[in-house]
From TrEMBL:
It comes from Chelativorans intermedius. The keyword Phosphoprotein does not apply. Its main location: membrane. Keywords: Cell membrane, Membrane, Transmembrane, Transmembrane helix. This is MFS transporter. Residues 1-391 form the Major facilitator superfamily (MFS) profile domain. It is found in: Cell membrane. It is a multi-pass membrane protein.
Length: 395
């Protein structure tokens, strides 16, 4: 089996494993938070608060997971994530009150730290170094269908068997499907490479090159701003479109365009845009949401589908940029730890995004989009300050 075939198998395995990981955790509250809260006798906001707590845990543990992947590779970490996800989902399905509800989501949050895109991207970078861009894009192409596949699956399971059984089924899927994919089809890092990396990681790090701290700060802001918008739209898009004047059926149809638009944007990145520095892709993607917001705020309901398509395409490309920009600017050395650090502000932004935007929608309606449009514009400006000809090679 040649290297290209082995890489294709690894990308396919990670893509399907990531689809399961995202669909059974990050996208779960959108379907199950309501039924869960009703049976437990708590406000729906309490279920989302537990989910926010999971994101905080993921933020705090992410750098440690990244450092481990830098030293030893990611196969064991990703395999561990399936066990943690399974335990957390099983605990969630058995929850009888708020204590176990929060405990379950805290466990799931630990799984997020070691089992979502950051860990997958770090694993690919550990395996393929500077050549990981195409592999990262390939994984996101497959996992881009997580909501498209898992939302209907969760809804069907909840409708037929209840939310508890839905949690148990997703827990079993991590053992039966996710774990074998990560353990058996993701290559182990070569022993010599691991030894060399371990020696490098244990030695004193070189002084930070000029401009690295500024570049890290700019990327951290971009990731936090774009994850805030992504999480906000995932939680509120149908309601936001209704606030803009769209009929309920139109809002649902338009919101459903986000998934295909994300994949279309990633196909563009995988095909045409891969010839260019990923900064170009990120800059184009950063202006997509603000442009869509201006269109729908100006035209109202008739522009609902245009807005959803622009947001989806931009978000799809920005997801890839979160993996490829640190690689292109800083190189593969220390990628996992750096990725974990960059995502700390983003996870905190995610944790507060649904609640904050709900307050803004309640007060300002569709005009709340001015906030996410402004964040998109600020992200574009930050990306303009990054120079594609400047590359830092060390942590």
């Amino acid at each position: 089996m040649n290297g290209t075939t082995r890489q294709a198998i690894a990308v396919g395995a990670l893509g399907f494993a990531q689809t399961l990981a995202w669909g059974s955790t990050y996208y779960l509250p959108a379907i199950l938070a309501g039924p869960m809260a009703r049976e437990l006798g708590v406000p729906t906001g309490m279920a989302f608060a537990a989910f926010s707590a999971a994101l905080v845990v993921a933020a705090l543990l992410g750098p440690f997971a990244g450092r481990y992947i830098d030293r030893f590779g990611g196969r064991d970490v990703l395999t561990l994530s399936n066990l943690i996800f399974a335990a957390g989902l099983a605990l969630l399905g058995a929850a009888q009150g708020t204590t176990l509800l929060f405990a379950a989501w805290l466990v799931i949050g630990a799984g997020m730290a070691v089992g979502l895109y950051e860990a997958a991207f770090s694993t690919l970078t550990r395996l393929y170094g500077h050549e990981a861009r195409g592999a990262i894009t390939g994984v996101t192409l497959i996992a881009g269908f997580a909501s498209t596949v898992c939302w209907p699956a969760s809804a069907w399971l909840e409708g037929e068997f209840g939310w508890r059984m839905a949690c148990f089924v997703w827990a079993a899927a991590h053992i039966v499907i996710g774990l074998p994919l990560n353990r058996l089809l993701v290559p182990a890092t070569a022993l010599q490479a691991a030894i060399a990396s371990k020696k490098q990681a244990s030695s004193a790090p070189p002084p930070a090159p000029a401009g690295q701290n500024a570049a890290m700060a700019l990327l951290a802001f971009v990731f936090a701003a774009t994850w805030f918008t992504s999480t906000t739209m995932a939680a509120h898009l149908p309601g936001l479109l209704r606030e803009s004047g769209a009929a309920p059926a139109t809002a649902i149809v338009a919101a459903a365009l986000v998934g295909p638009a994300q994949v279309a944007g990633r196909l563009l990145e995988f095909g045409f845009l891969r010839r260019f520095h990923p900064l170009l892709s990120a800059r184009l993607a950063a202006v997509a949401h603000p442009l869509g917001a201006l269109v729908i705020l100006g035209a109202g309901a008739p522009a609902a589908m245009v807005f959803a398509a622009l947001h989806g395409a931009g978000n799809g490309v920005l997801t890839i940029a979160k993996g490829t920009l640190p690689l292109a600017i800083f190189g593969p050395d220390g990628y996992g730890f750096r990725q974990g650090l960059l995502m700390v502000p983003a996870r905190f932004a995610q944790a507060g995004a649904p609640f904050l935007f709900a307050l803004l929608m309640e007060r300002y309606g569709a005009s709340a989009l001015l906030l996410t449009a402004a964040l998109g514009a600020a992200s574009f400006a930050a990306l303009l300050l990054l120079n594609p000809s400047t590359k830092v090679e060390h942590v």
